[in-house]
Amino acid sequence: MWYTENGNMGDVVLSTRVRLARNIASIPFAPRMTKKNQGDVIEKCRKAFEGDKDMKFIDISSMRDYERQALAEKHIISPEMVSSTRRTGLLLSGDERAAIMLNEEDHIRIQYMSSGLDRNCLVEANRLDDKLEASVDFAFDPQIGYLTCCPTNVGTGMRASVMVFLPAMVMSNSADRIFRSLSTLGMTVRGLYGEGSNSAGNIFQISNQVTLGVSEEEIWNKLEQITGEIVEKERELRKKLYENSKYETEDRVLRSLGILTNARLMSGQEALARLSDVRLGISLGIIKDVSVEKLNEVMYHTFPATIVNTFNIFSARERDLKRAEITKELTKAPCSDDLNGSNKENKAAGYAEQGDDLNA
Amino acid sequence: MWYTENGNMGDVVLSTRVRLARNIASIPFAPRMTKKNQGDVIEKCRKAFEGDKDMKFIDISSMRDYERQALAEKHIISPEMVSSTRRTGLLLSGDERAAIMLNEEDHIRIQYMSSGLDRNCLVEANRLDDKLEASVDFAFDPQIGYLTCCPTNVGTGMRASVMVFLPAMVMSNSADRIFRSLSTLGMTVRGLYGEGSNSAGNIFQISNQVTLGVSEEEIWNKLEQITGEIVEKERELRKKLYENSKYETEDRVLRSLGILTNARLMSGQEALARLSDVRLGISLGIIKDVSVEKLNEVMYHTFPATIVNTFNIFSARERDLKRAEITKELTKAPCSDDLNGSNKENKAAGYAEQGDDLNA
Q1: Residues of B in contact with A247 (CB under 8 A)
Q2: Are B255 and A246 in contact (CB under 8 A)?
Q3: Is B259 in Cβ contact with A258 (below 8 Å)?
Q4: Residue A253 · residue A284 · CB < 8 Å
């Protein structure tokens, strides 16, 4: 799957996502929608992809909480959609790069994701947009652009974001200062699954704040430029960190690997923190027998709902046991069936792609 | 070497030592000795073992501090002898079980050491005693017994001790209570290298307090009996610990193994604590790929003065680096040359057995 790949500038940039917010002109916006309207949105969009063998429809409304959560852990759906009581749906490509959320805040949220820093996300999101627009009439104002539920999305309706791994910025206490300067440049920074610079795993999302009065190209170019600068800064800080505290850095990184591959119980929080150390260790050349792909695979498999979903494990304690088994895989051969469980039940629940999904 | 062996009741009893305090009748006791008297003690005792190819004389007075300390780390000489300004010497057998300290508190301290609980220590100490007595006239009173420098040793002059590993007693907070009851039975308990129940590594020395008005046999039998009870209690507590917190115990033990075999920096204190976890793990059958012999070998090699002595490393930081290399050996093949360095200099300093010594 794309989210285990080591992409462009992969030592710092884990992934790129371009998201376009769209609404259907003939249907009321979310706050005023009836159940029937919600059904219509889903109907129209499914029709737009009829005959497309790659884009499968998933009925999010009928999924269990942990199944939704597992999708959110991979950023395929938004946290908002996990708890939504609307009739929600998802059009998802086989490779899980293209994901069109239906009845999230807007009628339609087109997403395209890729590993590393990848301009292709913009190209592909636009392609999905064109495909929808061929059969659906979007709410559009010639002066303003695309109309959206929340005014912060009006105009292009585009949010381009990168997930960046910034351990050296955090360790050197320069993250907060750099994040503040980013916000003066019209960028927003969030933790992996929430706000603030206290992100477990030292993973942050950087995205554009402004969607109005700029073109999609301009939004992308700015993100690309700023990301490039962040990458340079982080690389420089890592180099400095390693030069100034060679043995302490090696010790930290190698202990984390030792614990991940030996512990019997592992919380999600600890796994994320220690995997962050291992990722740093790989990028500094300290750890050579773990690939970034393997690390990514293991990281996604340690997320709580993903464990529930893959192994039908509902107790937190048993998840900690299972998670410790999963992190042991780090130093084993690149592809392991052990991580994938055999969760027939979820398929019955309507999430047909389930089996492949977790076969990272 | 004997101290890496896994002896009788080796899951709890690391080693046994029998020590006999003796003084030469014609020479003043320690506080009143001249340098010449000290030389005479050494002379007479060396003569008693003349022609004995196994017992080598080592001139402790001419050794460097860390060389003496390295001997003390293996309990071959006492901590008092490390800092002594007297002319001190040692008669040491090739297998390092028999060690006769000269000009410690008493003129002569005969020691015999063995792994596990081993009555043979008494037999062998008596044999050494007889051998000395054949040519040296001991200070002896028919009413009281052997006369010693400190009144607490008068009588038999015998101290029998066992080193016991009591992690479950410590974890269950029952160590202090049990140690107090031992003292009412005339036994003394100390930490591995000092007083108190706060011993790093959960290793304690139990020895007889009373030396007067009892026979050597009685002293031994009592120690043997009490040690047997301690062993039973500790085994029972370990079983209970593992039953009550299976995963937490496995987690603790396996994390320690993971850290010992992966860390880049390792302090002596941490090594001792984590090796204690591994020892517990071996005894509970959690860790199967580390032998007790290997564990003992690694433990002795991590002691600070032993590292100085083996590798000529004088900086604490570099010792922490070397120690982390040493603990990595835990899961490697049983015999490794890497631990033994090549310290020619010490041989020149008069400690001829040095090279073999650390070849555990």
Answers
A1: 264-265, 317, 321
A2: no
A3: yes
A4: yes
**Contact B59/A at CB under 8 A:** no
Give all domains of chain A, ordered by start, each with its CATH number: 2-239 (3.30.590.10), 246-331 (no CATH)
Hey, which residues does A108 pair with through a beta bridge? A22, A102
Residue in the structure block whose two tokens are 């490794």:
B336
Q: Does A307 touch chain B (CB under 8 A)?
A: no
Interface contact flag, A251 B265, Cβ < 8 Å: yes
For A165-184, write each residue's pLDDT tens digit. Answer: 999 999 999 998 999 999 99
* pLDDT tens for each residue of A192-250: 765 554 577 899 999 999 999 999 999 999 999 999 999 999 999 999 999 999 999 99
Closest C-alpha among A58, A74, A71, A154 to residue A106: A154
> Among A248, A255, A265, whose Cβ lies nearest the Cβ of B262?
A255
What does chain A come to in residues? 360
Q: How far apart are CA A82 and CA A64, in angstroms?
A: 9
Residue type at position A346 = N
List the single residue in B247, B257, B317 with the smallest CB-CB distance to A262: B257
ipTM of the modeled complex: 0.86
Q: Using a cut of 0.90, tell me whether the model's pTM lies above it.
A: no
Burial B140-154, CB ≥16 within 10 A → b, else e: eeeeebbbbbeeebb
d(CA B96, CA B94): 5
Contact A259 B255 (CB under 8 A): yes
The A residues from 5 to 34 touching B (CB cutoff 8 Å) are none
Alpha-carbon distance B222 to B46, whole Å? Answer: 33
DSSP state, residue A138: B
Per-chain mean pLDDT for chain B: 91
Cα angle A289-A290-A296, degrees, rounded to a multiple of 5: 170
pLDDT score of B332: 86
Higher pLDDT among residues A31 and B49, named by residue: B49
Whether A289 and chain B come into contact, CB under 8 Å, resolves to no
Residue bearing tokens 């917190």: B245
Q: State the average pLDDT for chain A.
A: 91
